[in-house]
Structures are given as structure tokens and as C-alpha cells.
Amino acid sequence: MSKIILTGDRPTGKLHLGHYVGSLRRRVELQNSGEYEKIFIMIADAQALTDNFDNPGKIRENIIEVALDYLSAGLDPEKTNIFIQSEINELTELSFYYMNLVTVSRLQRNPTVKSEIQLRNFETSIPVGFFCYPISQAADITAFKATVVPVGVDQLPMIEQTREIVNKFNSTYGEVLVEPQALIPENAVCCRLPGTDGKAKMSKSLGNCIYLSDTPEDVKKKVMSMYTDPNHLKVTDPGSIEGNTVFTYLDAFCKDEHFEKYCPDYKNLDEMKDHYQRGGLGDVKVKKLLINVLEEELAPIRARRAELEQNIPYVLEVLKKGTQAAHVEATKTLNEVRAAMKINYFDDQALIESWEKKFQG
Ligand code: TRP
Question: What is the whole-number distance in angstroms between the Cα of residue 141 and the centre of ligand 1?
């Protein structure tokens, strides 16, 4: 079976380091591995509208921001189709058919939906569209017969729900759909990069994000004000690594080579951590290393973005081409789905003949 990737992001804001280490960096590696026959990366505007239906302007603005982030982070339109979800009407049709295969109580048990309902204070007034978004996500994945879905850990319940829908569909109508596997980051810290304030997750509303498009000055300022160990008051005090955001970020970004280049007092992160824990290592030195490490990663991304920003027609062309390719694929799958569900009346010659016979003497 050919290896196919589908994944995507809701365009509710620019992409930040949490997106980058949680999924985007991996996608670029997978793309460049040459192991995948087809790669589809989707800007999930229709899904974003399920909890932003009253703010379409925000979603629209962020289509271009996310596209710029994708391309500047290294997604290559020669290898990867970047497309816009709402342009692929087959996805809506698939969702409608899949709704028959999922119960309300199963959706209520989906942990991601549950926590998002709490987060948004929907309680008793949950929009039906929002409630059904796991079904639409199953449509996104299956329309491309994706075998691999690179995502953050918060998306695992969605992939599980997709697999259930695939099984239910295939056992009811015949083998058409493909069961996907989730691919989560290997490095546990990358699964849930905390915000710069040490809070659970980077989130635009908490103002604790470092964006891929931040200027060097922004990055420096944000790192310098990062949450560390509040009890590490003097340089000589022993410091704690646990929950120390600067070290968490170093865990996600730092390689041994960085020490030789930026901080030759230590061979690797473990040595630096030991010193911090013993006492005698100040926060500023650790933060300066992190700034250098982040800049090494972000500078080329920023430079590509600056170029792309001067060529928006090119970015739109990329989106159009990707969308066309996605459309071709989704149409193929939808046709198979319709045939399996016996709703392909005009294409089914045997059916037409049987109808003719039924009424002939
Ligand atoms: N739910 C994903 C997010 O919140 C976006 C998304 C929509 C997605 N459809 C998908 C991810 C299909 C992977 C596969 O970012």
C-alpha cells in the first residue's frame, strides 16, 4: 500500500514554536525523506469556523499567515500539496455520510471534544457543527486514504475516532477506506511545549507564544522574561530543572553541537543541567544559549518568509495548485464511497438494467 500523509492546522493564528516542534518540523523531515508517495497539508478553515463561525474575518486573515509559515518552515510545493479545506466540497459530503456511523454518546466521550467544550464554556449550548468536527476530521483523513497523520498528542482521540469510522464503514459497505496511523513527536517535550510563562500550552489568548515569524528582538525579549525556577534567586543557589521553561525549550531544540558553538563551558545539556542543579549557574547564561539555539532555527525561516511576503501571488498559486491536486484525490475517494453505499445511480449500468427489467413483462 502506498504511504500517504495528510495533516493540517486550523488557521486561527500564526504558527508558533508549539506547532513547530509538535508537528511542522516533523512534516518537513517526512517530506524530505522521500518515503511518501503523496503528501497533503491542509489549512483547516472549515474546522476553524466550527468554533469561530462568528469571526470569519479572523480565519480569512490567517489563511495567508499559515501558508507563509508552512512555506517558510520548509514545506516544498514540489513535494507537498498545501490546500484549503473549504475548497474541497467532497469533504462535506463524506462527513454527512459518516455521521450515520457515529453515535452522539461516542462523540461526547471524545476527550479532545470534551476538554474543548469546557475551554470554550459551551456547556449546554454546543453548536452541532463543532460537536461533529471529529467526523469532519475523519473525512479529511480518509478522503486522501492517508496512512500516516503527523499530529500533536492532543489529536490522538481524533485519529482513534477516524479509525473507528473507517472500520464501521468498511464492515458495512465493503473495503474502501484506509485506517490511518497517528505519528506523534518522538521527543516527549515536543508533545506539549509549554508557554513562555511556564503555563501548560502555548496559546495565543494567553500571550505566551513565540511565533515562527517573530523578530530576533521579540524572541530575545520573550526568552529573557521566560519562567524559570522562582526559588533560584542568587547564582549560587541550587536551581531546579523540573518545570523550568528555559530547560524544557532546550530539551526540545538543543543539540550537542550547539555547546561547542555557543557555550563551550559544557559538552552537552546534561552537563549544563548538573551545574544548574548544583548551584553556580545563572539564568541569564542559560537564556542566552536558548536565544542562540532558537535563532539558528528561526533565522532561515524568517528570511524565507520575508522573501515570500514580497510574492503573495506565488503563495496563492501554490495554494491553488495544491487545492486542485487535493480535489482530484478527494473526488476519486468520494466516487468509491458513493459506489460502495449504492448511491451512484447514474454510473451503475447494472442497476439501470435491473430497473429496466423490473418493469418489462
Ligand atoms: N484538528 C487539527 C487542529 O486542531 C486540524 C485538523 C483538521 C487536522 N483536520 C485534520 C489534523 C486532519 C490532522 C488531520 O490543529
Answer: 9
